[in-house]
Amino acid sequence: MHAPDGFIDAPVSIAAGAVAVAGVGLALRGATRELDDRTAPLAGLTAAFVFAAQMLNFPVASGTSGHLLGGALAAILVGPWTGVLCVAVVLLLQALLFADGGLTALGVNVITMSLVTVAVAYPLFRALVRVLPKTRAAAAGASFAAALVSVPASAVAFTALYALGGTTDVSIGTVAGAMVGVHVLIGIGEALITAATVSSVLAVRPDLVHGARELRRRPELRTRAAGASGADRAEPSQA
User: Which residues on neighbouring strands pair with residue 223, listed in sequence order?
Assistant: First the structure.
């Protein structure tokens, strides 16, 4: 999915860079409402996980491989604004340190792999969580669906940018067929990883999953004997 330098012409790359800067700027403002002392460390861990996962490719078909995009996972775990920032930072570091995606194409890559994946996955996840049973399995299923849809959506966005400024002789129909077809398969891998990760976090710390706030455990009332009088004392617990 990482677009290299020169694959999209200069005018479209510049325009994409401007859109990406505006999107990241909005995300910086929005993230201030999502992050606090408890969730900020999780955002760092999420970005690190996406960075590592994007470096690992899994086979798809006919010699093609794919990797996690991470937008759906990041948005569900830490919120949509922070999710955009996590993936954008990962893409910047990959371009600078590993030449994974061109610097002149960074705006294109931020749009396709950060802005579009989050914009598609998070609203879909929240809509499904609202209508499905409030269980961990249902939330995992919703995260699977959101991640699955977000990947081909990213491929469609790239195809649109290629239609505007592609520099190769490959026809737009060929690009569209190859991108969407392969990324539907990649989306299945993305969906499995996302669902497994979200389900695992929900199992131990549901309070840390931003997108599944409905599943947070309600405080329970426990009683225990207090002192020699033997009188019971009630206290709230998060257990």
Answer: 234
